[in-house]
Amino acid sequence: VLSHNLCTVLNVPHDPVALEEHFRDDDEGPVSNQGYMPYLNKFILEKVQGNFDKVEFNRMCWTLCAKKNLSKSLLLISDEDAFKVWVIFNFLSEDKYPLIIVPEEIEYFLKKLTEAMGAGWQQEQFDHYKVALNTSREGLSAWELIDLIGSGQFSKGMDRQTVSMAINEVFNELILDVLKQGYMLKKGHKRKNWTERWFVLKPNIISYYVSEDLKDKKGDIMLDGNCCVEALPDKDGKKCLFLIKCLDKSFEISASDKKKKQEWIQAIQTTVNLLRGGNPPPHKEARQKRKELRQKLLAEQEELERQMKELQAANENKQKELETVRKQLEAAAARAAEEEKKRLQTQVELQDRFSLELEREKMVRQQMEEQVAQKSSELEQYLQRVRELEEMYKQLQEALEDEKQARQDEETVRKLQARLLEEESAKRAELEKWHLQQQQTIQMTEAEKQELENQRLIKERALQVAMQQLEQLELERKEALEQYEEVKKKLETAANNTKSWKDKVARHEGLIRLIEPGSKNPHLITNWGPAAFTEAELEQRQKSWKGKKATSE
């Protein structure tokens, strides 16, 4: 049953024949963990492709071990929350068995949990807990961590629902890789209507659902290094718009306010940048950095301990050398006493020889004293070196404490800078919006001004053409007027001649009447008298003038 369930959860085909063959000769009773592990590694784990639901796999493992290990005491969290804490423990624990979570990772988890609950972090309280923990062991097991969270020691004043929501938020971020989630409006691609959806941002995809229970999934937005996100101006009655551009299509999104809009744009852009660089999610990268830092500090501490052992060994060697010198001095003193005794016995006979021996012994004693003084000086230097190393060790401990405090201060300053950057981004977006509106207004004004200038130039050109035509007509009118005056003078002269001639004829003959020739067409009258041209000529001139005017326009 266990093997079949593992194969189902891990999407591996189950082979009952292989199971029977593997355990065919085992008639010694129940299978132990050590006896089952070879079958698990060979027939199940080696066939895993990675395309399985990790949450369901964790839930199955939880089912196998929770009943036996979960504390029966009253916990302030539900079984589901205890399961999520257990999964988070597996993510943050060290890569060695038995699995434990070190104090640094416990502090990271509790800080995340406190931040999600909206409470303040109690560093002093955790320091007391950390001191008590370090005196007894290196870290906590999964079940001890569940007891710690369920006891409410670091969530006093918070109700169960708040703690549960905080655990779920940390679980979504660390285990499900949820970088951001929330309600926003999405514009449809076919009907172009706006619908509220629950969006979930992960390292390479944005999924959107009908509601936050994640039951009815409506679609995905696949992210890669070619995607980009940009802010849009307000339109169609929608505000706080931004656009997600992908290779195949684009998505218009409307956030609830400017802060949410900026947060989503920044989160999506950060995700795209991580995809371009091939980097892991931020929480996984931070976990790896914390692990490397712990390994570095552990290596430095081991190196320091090694140096202390070397100094201790060197100190023991020096002590042995000093003991050897002391024994040599004692032996020399014994030999000197023996020689003194012999000298006293042979004082009379060997007076001269005694003087020489005495001088020799004095020289030997002086050399031995010089050696002792030299060894004593070396011992003092060695002890001074030991004291300096001890002082250096204390300074190193103080530096580590200062570094921890500096990290806490840096975290505080970083949060303040992040808040200031958000405010600055909001103000900058507002200023850019005003600047864009002003530029649009200026462009519209310039366009209208240019159009009016073009119309004025066209009218001026038409006016100039009309003035030229008017001047031409004036010249033609003057020429026609001059021709008319000449014709009029000729007519007057002819009329006078005719009148005198008619009078003469009338007087002489009385019956003769001359018929004068007249115009076939009716005469045109102008302001200056009879016109010098006919109505047909006037119509032809008007057509010519209208044609010139149309050409100039």
Describe the protein in words.
The chain is α+β, with helices and mostly antiparallel strands. Among the domains are: 123 residues, no CATH class; 101 residues, Roll (PH-domain like); 35 residues. It has 13 helices and nine strands. It has a seven-stranded antiparallel β-sheet with strand order 4-3-2-1-7-6-5, covered by helices on one side. Strands 8-9 form a two-stranded antiparallel ribbon. A hairpin with a 2-residue loop joins strand 2 and strand 3. Helix 5 runs parallel beside helix 9 and helix 10 crosses helix 12. The two termini are 95 Å apart. Keywords: Cell membrane, Cell projection, Coiled coil, Cytoplasm, DNA-binding, Membrane, Nucleus, Phosphoprotein. It holds the Pfam family EF-hand_SWAP70_N. This is Switch-associated protein 70.
Write the layout of secondary structure elements.
Elements: H1 2-9, H2 16-22, H3 33-44, H4 54-69, H5 79-92, H6 103-117, H7 123-136, H8 142-151, H9 160-174, E1 180-187, E2 194-202, E3 205-209, E4 217-222, E5 228-232, E6 241-245, E7 250-254, H10 258-277, H11 282-345, H12 351-508, E8 525-526, E9 529-530, H13 535-552
Helix pairs in contact: 5-8, 5-9, 6-9, 10-12, 11-12, 12-13
